[in-house]
Amino acid sequence: MSDGSEIFLLNLRVNGRAHRVPVSADDTLLDVLRRDLRFFSCRETCGLGLCGSCTVVVDGRAVSACLAPAFTQDGCEVRTAEGLEDTDDLHPVQQAFVDEQAFQCSFCTPGFLMSTVAMLEEDGPADVESALTGHLCRCGSYRQIMAAVGKVAGDGRDGTGE
Amino acid sequence: MIGQRQTLLDARDRVTGRIPYTINLEPPGTLHVAILRSTVPHARLVRVDASAASQLPGVAAVLTRDDFAGSSIRPLFGPVFRDQPIVAMDRVRYVGEPVAAVAATDLRAAEAALESIEVEYEELPAVFTPQDALAAGAPLLHESFDDRAPGYADIVLQGQGGNVCNKFQLRKGDGLAGFELADEIFEHEFSSPPVQHVSMEPHAAVASFEGDYLTVHTCTQTPYAVRDALAYMFRLPASHVRVVVPPVGGGFGGKTYAKVEPLAAVLSKMTHRPVKVHLTREEEFVTNRKHQAFIKLRTGMRRDGTIVAREVQALFNAGAYTDISPRLIKNGGYGAVGPYRISHVHIDSYAVFTNLPSAGAFRGYGVSQGSWAYESQMDMIAEAMGFDPIELRMRNLLLEGDTFATGETLHGIRFPEVLRDATTLFEAGRVPPPAEDDGSVKRGRGCAVIIKSTITPSTSAASVKLNSDGSLQVLTSTVDMGQGAHTALSQIAASALGVGVGSIGVVGPDTDVTPFDLTTSSSRSTAAMGAAVREAVFDVRRQLLDLAAQQMEVDVTDLELADGRISVVGDPASGRSIAEVVTASRRGTLAGNGSFVTEGGLHPETGQGIASEHWHQGAVAAEVDVDVATGKVTVRGLRASVYAGTVVNPINARMQIDGSVSFGISQALFEQLIHDEGHPANSSLSEYALAGLADLPEVFEVSLIEDPDNDEMHGLGETCLPPVMPAIANAVADAVGVRIRHLPLTAERVLDALEEQR
Ligand code: FES
Ligand code: FES
């Protein structure tokens, strides 16, 4: 697998459904999710694990998909923003983002959502700030994001400061 | 409705991640592109050999300059001068310039093929700063300026020669002779570095030629400008080129005018397949940027604190190609006068070519560079002359009916109110004191106030279709890029028709369908496109009432339209619904058109005339802590105030100001593109420092100043960005007594200045 061209079959579950994807050694989880499986909520901005826009939840932990080698994901359970809603209802974190309008262009939104979900439902960091400081929102929707997350995390934060 | 908090209409798609950005598009058979870029800043291109690369598996085409030999395709493009090649022709002019491009069945194959392309350069001397580029004997980037693109009547081309790309000048009153009236004269130089937009969605486009028809999906802010550029390039009637713009993941100016679309289109023409270009983050850093600027500011003061004369000498680093520099240095030029009443003004503003990537539109549009100079100097003058900095500003601020430097009379002016509102931040107790006081943290306060034009002359057109069920479609070429434009336009349309937002649908930019619009930039869309939409709705409303009058056999002047029903005034029971009237008319749909056109322009020698249809007015007050041991600046409190006229959607209005402030703090403290002999040294988000969540002040206030008696809407997308940087620098000077004239105020630079002071 040294030259990256070797192909092998990756088995993983995304949003509860099983997938089998041929991948090469230099593919990342982001490649698999976007290019092969078309989960477009997973988005690359930095490609370096620094901006959070590619964050998905893997086996309960928030992960930068741009850094995660695909072949290490075999047998993993992946959650993306597409899988958060029920048939009719948005997930409470999504609903809070809508209620607080915690986005402008929304390119960063799924990453923020997935880190928040990991924090609340899985075993991520306990406080909002440490869960989200690694996330970039170039549109600067931070206060509304913090308000939305605060609302679902129950700390009553008012992001607008007004 | 107008003025109500309205959640974005497509909010659900945004939180499920299903919003259809350009980068998601991949029609069947799409080829992917990798670009070979110049490794030298300036060179004659001796040889480009792609013969080996084009034979590799998966490779469908390799574009080099040789493909243009004998082709009817015009290889150069640009909004003002067509001087930028799709791939380098005879020369390369910056590190990162496209030299060749591979289209292949998958991205890996395209990237791999780059290694097989052979390029031979004969290096030429290069220049990187405007000062060096203007020096005698400097190497020239361009020999001729002859391919002007039509349009943009406001742009006067003058001053070209040597490495001067364009010059703007303004002379008001007695110009330099006005300094004779001054009791004291202040002269300082200020600089701003180049910075990048870093929109999270990169530039991307999918082009597909079918016969003589070209369709391009792209994340541009200027669909019609891209369409016209492509039509010219391929010698097609504009009717054969269709540009569609999906929702955009942040623009900030960086997505104005053709960028990656020509490359995608040429490769599609060569391969007869859809071709997708999707830039990497590293490529983004060499694609477009904010102009580096050096501004010499001379200000003549009367003893009583009146500004009598101002001279501006501005050098803007345009990089290798013209892009929109001629307009930017104009707006940046007169913008550098500031929101002050000054009788004698002399401005020379230059765009200068250098061997760096091209600079272009950037949120703030030249005003950030100018206000960095004049609002910093304002505090320096106040200190030297013993005035309170707020009072000194108040004494000189433009008032309603005053004349601006361009000679135009100003209306809707609220500068004193805006500045006073911002500085309420300084009222006792608003911002908590530094946490620990061991003497190493100093607190300071600063403010700044700015004036910004909107693009003038300009044109926006809109169409609406009223359906037989009473619902209304708005057809608009305004790009939704996070500012909530389509939602605001829905609110405007709903208000004009007197129906709920729920019955409005917006069809976004598709040049085959949606009418002309100049650009989604310059904080103009809500006002300009909003006016066009309103007129289009009124058009359809008139038709509707005429039809109702016929159907009801009453005089049209007796009818009123409210809450979706048309009835005889005073007799609500006589009413029928919009749907009933349209259906009974048997027209199917009713169509309405509207447009908004502004006039203006400045005299080439004097800069006198009409620069802006209305003026954006913003102020920022900041409280900062400076750690004298580390040089670290922390913004503790900030209040941004803006004159908004009528606010359409308070949610998005406020968020755009939040965004401007976060851009401003980032540029004040961190952002700068660094080059080593023209080689980019920080083209990744690990090396290019940006402000994040942790850098926002804990006291952060946004104030929209509205005028209930005036329904004029003022753009809000940029106004509060330019004052952030000087307000912070003024607060730093107030805290520790050092004046930094060069952005950004990194800890290192502050520490150096503190050491120098000791
Ligand atoms: S793209 Fe993965 S963290 Fe930035
Ligand atoms: S909303 Fe645009 S980047 Fe966060």
From TrEMBL, chain A:
Q: Which SUPFAM superfamilies match?
A: 2Fe-2S ferredoxin-like (SSF54292), CO dehydrogenase ISP C-domain like (SSF47741)
Please report the stretch or stretches of sequence annotated as the 2Fe-2S ferredoxin-type domain.
Answer: 8-84
Q: In its UniProt entry, what is this protein called? A: Carbon-monoxide dehydrogenase small subunit/xanthine dehydrogenase YagT iron-sulfur-binding subunit
Q: Which Gene3D superfamilies match?
A: 3.10.20.30, [2Fe-2S]-binding domain (1.10.150.120)
Cited Pfam families: Fer2, Fer2_2
Q: Which UniProt keywords apply?
A: Iron, Metal-binding, Oxidoreductase
PANTHER family annotated for this entry?
OXIDOREDUCTASE WITH IRON-SULFUR SUBUNIT, OXIDOREDUCTASE, IRON-SULPHUR BINDING SUBUNIT-RELATED-RELATED
InterPro entries listed in its UniProt record: 2Fe-2S-bd, 2Fe-2S-bd_dom_sf, 2Fe-2S_ferredoxin-like_sf, 2Fe-2S_ferredoxin-type, 2Fe2S_fd_BS, Aldehyde_Oxdr_Iron-Sulfur, Beta-grasp_dom_sf
Q: What GO molecular function terms would the record report?
A: 2 iron, 2 sulfur cluster binding; metal ion binding; oxidoreductase activity, acting on the aldehyde or oxo group of donors
From TrEMBL, chain B:
Annotated membrane-spanning segments are none
Query: Which Pfam families does its entry note?
Result: Ald_Xan_dh_C, MoCoBD_1, MoCoBD_2
Can you provide one Gene Ontology molecular function annotated for this UniProt record?
A: oxidoreductase activity
Question: Can you give the residue ranges of the Aldehyde oxidase/xanthine dehydrogenase a/b hammerhead domain?
Answer: 16-125
- InterPro entries attached to this UniProt entry: Ald_Oxase/Xan_DH_a/b, Ald_Oxase/Xan_DH_a/b_sf, Ald_Oxase/xanthine_DH-like, AldOxase/xan_DH_MoCoBD1, AldOxase/xan_DH_MoCoBD2, AldOxase/xan_DH_Mopterin-bd_sf
Q: Which PANTHER family match?
A: XANTHINE DEHYDROGENASE (PTHR11908), XANTHINE DEHYDROGENASE SUBUNIT D-RELATED (PTHR11908:SF157)
Tell me what this protein is called. CO/xanthine dehydrogenase Mo-binding subunit
Whose protein is this, by species? Blastococcus saxobsidens
Name the lineage.
Answer: Bacteria, Bacillati, Actinomycetota, Actinomycetes, Geodermatophilales
